[in-house]
Design goal:
Residues 1-20 have low confidence and may be disordered. A 5-stranded parallel β-sheet has the order 1-8-7-2-6, with helices on both faces. Strands 3-4 form a two-stranded antiparallel ribbon. It has a two-stranded antiparallel ribbon with strand order 5-9. It has a domain at 39-73 and 81-173: 3-Layer(aba) Sandwich (Oxidized Rhodanese, domain 1). It is an alpha/beta fold and 185 residues long. It has helices at residues 2-16, 51-60, 106-120, 137-148, 160-166; strands at 47-48, 64-67, 72-73, 81-82, 88-89, 94-95, 128-131, 154-157, 172-173. This is PQQ-dependent catabolism-associated CXXCW motif protein. Pfam families: Rhodanese (PF00581). InterPro entries: PQQ_CXXCW (IPR022376), Rhodanese-like_dom (IPR001763), Rhodanese-like_dom_sf (IPR036873).
Length: 185
């Protein structure tokens, strides 16, 4: 019986212990490739949040969840996003594709900045939540970019929609905002 109690105590302790740090260093700049790979434990200047924290932030209704999954774009002038499959997002999210790529073009950067300005009403202290999929540098890059733009309450959700869905939380179909205007030749 004592062995069973010790085993149960050990098992409960292991379940309650937070995940070990990844040991992945934060790059000085942005991640430029291999976006689906282990990420650092945080983003300098941002708050790293887990699923219960995101749930609490969303339930308060003050945070703006921003989904940053990448999408290809038509090569036609002013072409639309090419969405090959449906995506799910945290309810109430805004999908800004490609704002987390390491070196976005000037039109995408301007589009990101103007959408953050519009979504926050110019309030740089407004809570922003950046997420993508688990092990995805796109959300890390986007959160870092928002911090460097002067947003003071940036939250990064590293397990993203995968962690949200694994917890059995509600989702909605994701629809990307219209793409930025094509850069002038």
């Amino acid at each position: 019986m004592t062995t069973l109690l010790v085993s149960l105590t050990l098992a409960l302790t292991l379940l309650a212990t937070p995940a070990l740090a990844t040991g992945v260093p934060q790059p000085e700049g942005y991640r430029l490739s291999d976006y689906r790979s282990p990420t650092p434990d945080g983003v300098t200047g941002a708050t790293t949040v887990d699923t219960p924290a995101v749930q609490a932030l969303v339930s308060r209704g003050r945070i703006i969840p921003i989904f940053v999954q990448r999408l290809e774009r038509s090569t036609l002038p002013g072409g639309p996003w090419l969405q090959s499959k449906p995506y799910r997002q945290i309810p109430g999210s805004v999908w800004l594709p490609n704002v987390g790529v390491g070196a976005p073009d000037a039109a995408t950067l301007g589009w990101f900045e103007s959408n953050l300005e519009r979504l926050t009403g110019g309030d740089r202290a407004r809570d922003l939540l950046f997420y993508c999929l688990s092990d995805c540098w796109l959300s890390w890059n986007a959160a870092k970019r928002a911090v460097l733009l002067g947003y003071a309450r940036v939250h990064w959700y590293p397990t993203g929609i995968d962690g949200w869905m694994e917890a059995g939380l509600p989702t909605e179909e994701a629809h990307p905002l219209p793409p930025p205007a094509a850069a002038a030749p």
